[in-house]
Specification:
Length: about 100
């Protein structure tokens, strides 16, 4: 469990973001990167005045995401695309999916 699991309940979003939501920001090769390397993107928390009651002049919102990976290598470009697509500051936690083989 990550540190922001202890944030106040009003900050909780807990929504899975479809990987194809980033398609408008991607080339064909980059879309495959999302499919091949990322298992799931979850919008975990939204830190903003209305969810924390803490006003800020400089930072309007911080979006917290959890990204579950299928593969660890070569995800930097996907992270840049996610950062570019989200119009607010982002905090990303990377989770590694462990596949069980019989």
């Amino acid at each position: 469990m990550v540190w922001y699991s202890q944030l106040p309940k009003p900050t909780l979003v807990n929504k899975v973001i479809p990987k194809n939501a980033f398609d408008p920001y991607c080339s064909g090769q980059q879309k495959r990167l999302f499919t091949d390397k990322i298992e799931k993107i979850r919008w975990a928390h939204k830190l903003a005045w209305e969810t924390t009651n803490l006003p800020s002049q400089e930072v309007k919102e911080i979006q917290c995401f959890e990204i579950e990976l299928r593969q660890e290598e070569g995800i930097e470009e996907a992270l840049r695309i996610i950062d570019w697509a989200i119009p607010f500051q982002t905090f990303v936690t990377i989770l590694k999916v462990k596949w069980l083989h019989r």
